[in-house]
Amino acid sequence: MKKIINDPGNVVPEMVQGLVRSNSDIVELIPNTEAVVRADKESMKGKVGIVSGGGSGHEPTHAGFVGKGMLSAAVCGEVFTSPTPDQIFEAIKASNTGSGVFLVIKNYSGDVMNFEMAQDMAEMEDIPVKSVVVDDDIAVENSTYTQGRRGVAGTLFMHKILGAAADLGASLDDLEALSKQVLPNIKTIAVALSGATVPEVGKPGFTLADDEIEYGVGIHGEPGYRREKLQPSKALVEELVGKLKAEFNFKPGEKYAVIVNGMGATPLMEQYIFMNDVLDKLADEKLEVVFTKVGNLMTSLDMAGISLSLFKIEDDRMVDGLKHEVKTIAW
Amino acid sequence: MKKIINDPGNVVPEMVQGLVRSNSDIVELIPNTEAVVRADKESMKGKVGIVSGGGSGHEPTHAGFVGKGMLSAAVCGEVFTSPTPDQIFEAIKASNTGSGVFLVIKNYSGDVMNFEMAQDMAEMEDIPVKSVVVDDDIAVENSTYTQGRRGVAGTLFMHKILGAAADLGASLDDLEALSKQVLPNIKTIAVALSGATVPEVGKPGFTLADDEIEYGVGIHGEPGYRREKLQPSKALVEELVGKLKAEFNFKPGEKYAVIVNGMGATPLMEQYIFMNDVLDKLADEKLEVVFTKVGNLMTSLDMAGISLSLFKIEDDRMVDGLKHEVKTIAW
Amino acid sequence: MALTVEQAKTWLEDFYTEIEAQKQYLSDLDTPIGDGDHGNNMARGMTAVHEDISDADFASVSDLFKKVAMDLISKVGGASGPLYGTAFLEMSKTAAGSTELKDLVSAALAGIEKRGKATTNEKTMIDVWSPMAEKLNSDEAVSEADIDQFVESTKDMVATKGRASYLGERSVGHIDPGAMSSGYLLKALVKVGA
Amino acid sequence: MALTVEQAKTWLEDFYTEIEAQKQYLSDLDTPIGDGDHGNNMARGMTAVHEDISDADFASVSDLFKKVAMDLISKVGGASGPLYGTAFLEMSKTAAGSTELKDLVSAALAGIEKRGKATTNEKTMIDVWSPMAEKLNSDEAVSEADIDQFVESTKDMVATKGRASYLGERSVGHIDPGAMSSGYLLKALVKVGA
Ligand SMILES: Nc1ncnc2c1ncn2[C@@H]1O[C@H](COP(=O)(O)OP(=O)(O)O)[C@@H](O)[C@H]1O
Ligand SMILES: Nc1ncnc2c1ncn2[C@@H]1O[C@H](COP(=O)(O)OP(=O)(O)O)[C@@H](O)[C@H]1O
Ligand SMILES: [Mg+2]
Ligand SMILES: [Mg+2]
Ligand SMILES: [Mg+2]
Ligand SMILES: [Mg+2]
């Protein structure tokens, strides 16, 4: 393992310190936690707070999306491990200015359980809390008898839309309704070129041969649906857009927002080449692309690979939400 | 070589296409080139244009810094290869709204020669052009008998300061004077954990053992000054800040701006941990840190590693320049 | 078969020692069908428990379990934190009335089932807690070998809850890491001989 | 010793063929002391030259060289683009008056020196162009073996210009890639026998 760290057991607090100290105009640490809250308190007044979080190792997610117009607070768990309810509860308290707090949870058993416990704690203190569980990763088969689909980079669409709405004064109920409208319209699929190494583990979660890729890998290196030989970008796009097409059932003229997300070790050059091919493919499908974003947004430590998220726009106000101005570290 | 590309010989045009198509509100392609110019023409009116560029593979540098308040245009050469004078000339023309154009050049023989030829071409068409050659990489010994120091991530300070000044209406002469004031006060030093692979070459420019690092590597993988065993972040900071201290001759109470730059494959988590240690070390030196930035800003394709840039602030207006609002893809 | 504070402390200290010893093995079990952190997660939690209980006095088993629950809830995270935390929280509530093993284990099981919304045969720790509760409730003796066999039974199951569920059929052939750590916990309990 | 348009075309086509053949070798030379792209850079430029001149007619050597200069300037980039481009631009100017080899080579050398702000013994292509110009100007015959020796001489030099200069003393022991490509160019020139 070759990493710029000190103690593998202490990476999260040191990272959070570094992040807060170098962005003190945007975020501040919530005392005695590994959670951050907006520095700009004025921007939270009278608004519903939006709280998200999860395991660390996905930077800039989630702390990088805290700021006016987006998240109110973010909780940083251990690497690839859901944060604990007490920390989530502190973030809820720090985000509540009297209008309640909305939680954006990614669908992992750990996240769901810890956020639920935090929600219980908040309700015991009479803080109104509602939540959405995002499950955009179409690599996993959906079934009511399983954990269901994972929450991955498409979650950023949820953060952005809810953050914009909260900024404009939406109520907790409004946000819940909005989240239900967004949820079925975001879907993501990834391809990995290499596995990620958790500092405390010291070796990659999975390994791929020099010429091998894996479709459908999750953001903690959860297994995907197929391994094969490395393909050119256009062929990867063919496969991944094909999967999304089957899920969305594309119809000509439909509008979509697109995120191409680097998993951590994949250069921006490759992400732009991939996006170029995605845009060609969506044009072939006669879809209208109304919003695009490219970059390392929800990473998996040093994993190489890319995820592609689509958000079907059924209401043009969603585009306004996506374009709503924010002041965050990383959006 | 495991990369998400199509044809190794065609990566630059495809990347530029992807970048422009996904950020059409900020940049547009200059016809028949691999150069981009601001989409917001209004923001350039009556202002001196700022043009930079260089080899590709350093994304988001330079195209990611084009936009109101920063660069007017950026020229994307072949991977790690200086762009050609005709393309630079097109960028100069596209950036000139009558007040002339200022060129920010990184000190490589290729960049200097190609930009100089473009400057000759512009002068033949009566476009006033001035320039600065940035040489912030202290890994290289300086001498009037050599090529001198390389231009690396500290160049971003130059882009930011000049971009802000131009935005506020500085003249070509003002910008030249300002660039001379900034130049001696920016210094950078890097450490690499792995080499970068140029798509057309297909193998890393250099290789390091599993437990080996190299201090002083350049952004094209140019050799550094020492190889040794991997160290904890705090020890890397000790070495790199030590080098900068010797160059700047730190005095208590001095003010500095700091950029921690990821080389491409190094996760943000490690960059923040490293920044945390840098801030501790600078505090030990009784220096005041007035500006910080962390991220993949001037990368070297898939190189793992970090560079640390300091900018000594002798005039508080520099801080205003650093904080001046911009609308770019990546600042 | 009622647990005293001393026995409960011994139980938890033994479990702490076992987790420290098996930390790597638990993470290794979590690698093929999870994210390789179960040993680290449990060790983080049990280190906190050990630090908080080893030199402290507790008025009751209920108080002790409450402390353990809080440590696990606030230190472990992931899926196992809320599950073990809830188990001890429920055992703490029950222990206010009874410290009979069958009552404690039944309360823990109910808490885990509620928290995880899972049931038996989904290849989770429930597949250890549930047969354990069943045997105790029918007043049968439970041996360490019995518990080993509960743990082992998860090997042939298809995971339908937790991270391992993403593997579907491919989860077969691997012991569930949470079942293994629950096995350690329950074997340590059997050993204190309450 | 004056060059005709036909000879000049043969020269450049031969050079193109050689660059294509030696592309990998030139990049390999550029790897230890540079950035490994010299072969790709030259091939990109000479492919454009080949495409533009092979089926075209040129009224004069000067016109031909101007086209070559423009192709190299606009296609190569890096350090070698402006250097070779300027060399051909200066040769184009000179060729309007004289196509004597010594005049052409001297003009190219002056252009390279001006553009690169370098001189001999800095381990660059100048260490091939300069002794070549010197021999021609003293009306000595230049053999391919002579040129090989100019190229070889860069091996023992310390680079003080261009990318290789970052290596300082460590650049010793490697042939300069730009010297090698210039060697190919000048050997092809000698071969056309003008
Ligand atoms: N919904 C659930 N119900 C019961 N047990 C579960 C559930 N989800 C996960 N588990 C248990 O948690 C264990 C994994 O714990 P751990 O690795 O610490 O957390 P994570 O999966 O978040 O990394 C699994 O082996 C399984 O026994
Ligand atoms: N200042 C200079 N003067 C003369 N020749 C130079 C100078 N700088 C570089 N060169 C030549 O250019 C060659 C490198 O060319 P190339 O690899 O194509 O460009 P780059 O160094 O930009 O990658 C060197 O081998 C050397 O011969
Ligand atoms: Mg986990
Ligand atoms: Mg080059
Ligand atoms: Mg786990
Ligand atoms: Mg080169």
From TrEMBL, chains C, D:
Catalytic activity: dihydroxyacetone + phosphoenolpyruvate = dihydroxyacetone phosphate + pyruvate
Pathway assigned in UniProt: Polyol metabolism; glycerol degradation
InterPro entries listed in its UniProt record: DhaK_L_YcgS, DhaL_dom, DhaL_dom_sf, Dihydroxyacetone_Kinase
Keywords, comma-separated and alphabetical: Glycerol metabolism, Kinase, Transferase
GO (cellular component) term, any one: cytosol
GO MF assignments: glycerone kinase activity; phosphoenolpyruvate-glycerone phosphotransferase activity
Domain DhaL residue range list: 6-191
Pfam families named among the record's database cross-references: Dak2 (PF02734)
This enzyme's EC code(s): 2.7.1.121
Keyword Kinase annotated: yes
GO biological process: glycerol catabolic process
Top-rank taxon, per record: Bacteria
Job of this protein: ADP-binding subunit of the dihydroxyacetone kinase, which is responsible for the phosphoenolpyruvate (PEP)-dependent phosphorylation of dihydroxyacetone. DhaL-ADP is converted to DhaL-ATP via a phosphoryl group transfer from DhaM and transmits it to dihydroxyacetone binds to DhaK.
Subunit structure: Homodimer. The dihydroxyacetone kinase complex is composed of a homodimer of DhaM, a homodimer of DhaK and the subunit DhaL.
NCBIfam families (alphabetical): dha_L_ycgS
Name the record gives this protein: phosphoenolpyruvate--glycerone phosphotransferase
Organism from which the protein derives: Pediococcus argentinicus
